[in-house]
Amino acid sequence: MSSIFSKKDIPLIAHALRNGEVCAIPTETVYGLAASITHPEGIKKIFTLKNRPATHPLIIHIHTLDQLSEWAFDIPEYVYQLAKQFWPGPLTFVLKKTAAVSSLVTGGQSNVAIRMPAHPLALSLIKAVGCPLAAPSANRFGQVSPTCAQHVLSEFQGTVQVLEGGPSQIGIESTIIDARLPHLLTILRPGMITEKQIASCLQNKIAITSPHLKSPQLPGSLPYHYAPNKPTMLFHSNTTLAALKRRYGHALFLITLSQVYTYTLGYKMPSQPEHYAQKLYDVLRTADQSQAQAIAIESPPNDAEWQGIQDRLKKASARDSIESV
Ligand code: TXA
Ligand code: MG
User: Fold this and answer.
1) Of 58, 80, 60, which is closest to residue 182 (Cα–Cα)?
2) pLDDT at residue 225, rounded to an integer
3) Is the pTM of this model over 0.85?
């Protein structure tokens, strides 16, 4: 049986999910590995397939804003303001969970992460299942997230069914906000919806903190995550690049922004952050599967719009110190 499904198969997939199966689904950020939040078997399969520790909570995906109060309570007013502007879209709220949310989904926590994805097939499927879908990124724990159906097939060697929805339009995971306090929100994971956009939507009336670099709460904030298997290093200057070239020669895969390197393996990234994010994970996978021995990534600008990308690049390269070159 084919592992790839299309729009017409949504009733079939919905039936399978209601019965405790899992299916990879497209979202605008990355592909997710989805199960119905009301079926414990499906949720357990997600953790097993991903090899993810059971204490690491999952994001649940809803398809209408009125569903929010069924799964969360004490919802601050600013959450509705943000949801009205950014949903469906790459923004996730951590809120106090109602008793209806199984603690299997939240890793035993009393909070639940909720978002409404901006992908028509994901929304249709959630509607067809009749309850939210828990969906972490459809990759093995700690690996690079998938941004197309083919990535999912190769990640799980074809053992996971995938709903084909084309390449992910955003390309990196959603911005996650801890929204449990009425007058303060915390950005737990930066993404393509920036702190500046959030502040401006709320007319700077709500205080915003972003300790995401230190937060111990998120697996995504482990020192390394989203990481290729090959040594991966971020370089900030030509001097460091020269040292990397001396060490690896032609066996270096260069992911650059400003220059074209014609004599080696590599990829010149788009200069707009939106386009860069769309390409990033695909390029990291290509680099990992290439002949190269190591991957060198030119550090992008430190500007606000690049924050989500900077975060992923730091994590992808955290394991491999450039000083040892
Ligand atoms: O864009 C996305 O968010 C994608 C798509 C598929 O929706 N999903 C995604 O899920 O990135 P995942 O599991 O790979 O990352 C979710 C992050 C994890 O770091 C997890 O710890 C955090 O969200 N998270 C989930 N529930 C939480 C909760 N109740 N409290 C705090 N953090 C939570
Ligand atoms: Mg993930």
Assistant:
1) 80
2) 73
3) yes
